[in-house]
């Protein structure tokens, strides 16, 4: 079954983690997300537990959310993490408040949305890392949908290492550059809320007579 781990960074780079809805409660403490996972798997392997997925999930703004698969009595060997999983943990440690969802073969990490200058979507598989920028797409005058657009795709090669912090920083810089400043109200807004490069939708209605 798939469960969610709430990871909180305390002072002095110490992480704490727990799995809401799991009885008995399992807590872990460590200085890295891999250490957290090792502790959780060790404790799950020696525990008979029940899981209530309907228990409310409470998150602080900077809490990370990580999904894993667990099965009673079995420990998944975190010492054998695949390369893309190691990159995912590294990215999560860099992005407080990020949310990680996964299937067995794909991990998607989301930080913020189209309204955030530092917003980013990262999709990781064993073949590649995709860095995507959150967007707001308009399907009609009154219909919008939150989406993302590809910024860069990197093919993974186990013989190469990548500067993940630099890639994330560059993607977030690219996201920030998609924002525009309205010449009427002087507010900086995401591209999905701009009518023109230098006019937001609200001011376009107010000053230019454009009707949405």
List the helices and strands and how they pair.
Layout: E1 2-9, E2 15-18, E3 22-23, E4 27-30, H1 33-45, E5 50-51, E6 64-69, H2 83-94, E7 99-102, E8 107-111, E9 120-124, E10 128-138, E11 144-155, H3 164-177, E12 180-181, E13 188-189, E14 194-196, E15 199-200, H4 201-207
Antiparallel strand pairs: 1-2, 1-6, 2-4, 3-5, 7-8, 8-9, 9-10, 10-11, 12-13, 14-15
Describe this protein's structure.
The chain has 212 residues and is of the alpha+beta class. It contains 4 helices and 15 strands. The chain has helices at 33-45, 83-94, 164-177, 201-207, and strands at 2-9, 15-18, 22-23, 27-30, 50-51, 64-69, 99-102, 107-111, 120-124, 128-138, 144-155, 180-181, 188-189, 194-196, 199-200. Strands 7-8-9-10-11 form a 5-stranded antiparallel β-sheet. Strand 9 and strand 10 form a beta hairpin. It is elongated, with a radius of gyration of 20 Å.
List keywords for this structure.
about 210 residues, alpha+beta, five-stranded antiparallel sheet, four-stranded antiparallel sheet, 4 helices, 15 strands, elongated
- Average of per-residue pLDDT values: 89
Look at the helices and sheets and give the structural class.
alpha+beta
Q: Taking strands numbered 1, 2, ... along the chain, how are they ordered across the largest sheet?
A: 7-8-9-10-11
The quaternary structure here is single chain
Q: Return the string of H and E elements.
A: EEEEHEEHEEEEEHEEEEH
Reported for the largest beta sheet, the result is: 5 strands, antiparallel
| Terminal Cα span | 45 Å
The fraction of residues in strands falls at: 25-35%
SS field, number of helical segments = 4
Give helix % range.
10-25%
**If you compute it from the alpha carbons, what radius of gyration comes out, rounded to the nearest whole angstrom?**
20 Å
Question: What is the number of strand segments?
Answer: 15
Shape: elongated
Low-confidence runs: none
């Amino acid at each position: 079954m798939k469960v969610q781990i709430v990871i909180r960074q305390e002072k002095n780079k110490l992480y704490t983690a727990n799995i809401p809805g799991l009885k008995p409660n399992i807590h872990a403490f460590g200085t890295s997300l891999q250490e957290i996972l090792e502790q959780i798997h060790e404790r799950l392997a020696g525990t008979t537990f029940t899981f209530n997925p309907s228990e409310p999930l409470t998150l602080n703004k900077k809490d990370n959310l990580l999904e894993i698969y667990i099965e009673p009595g079995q420990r998944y060997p975190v010492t054998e993490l695949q390369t893309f999983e190691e990159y995912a943990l590294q990215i999560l440690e860099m992005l407080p408040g990020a949310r990680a969802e996964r299937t067995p073969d794909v991990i998607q990490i989301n930080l913020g949305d189209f309204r955030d200058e530092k917003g980013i979507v990262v999709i990781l598989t064993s073949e590649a890392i995709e860095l995507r920028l959150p967007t707001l797409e308009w399907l009609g005058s009154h219909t919008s949908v939150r989406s993302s657009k590809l910024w860069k795709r990197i093919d993974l090669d186990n013989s190469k290492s990548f500067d993940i912090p630099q890639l994330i920083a560059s993607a977030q810089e690219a996201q920030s550059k998609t924002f525009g400043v309205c010449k009427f109200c002087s507010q900086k807004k995401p591209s999905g809320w701009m009518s023109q490069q230098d006019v937001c939708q609200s001011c376009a209605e107010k000053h230019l007579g454009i009707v949405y």
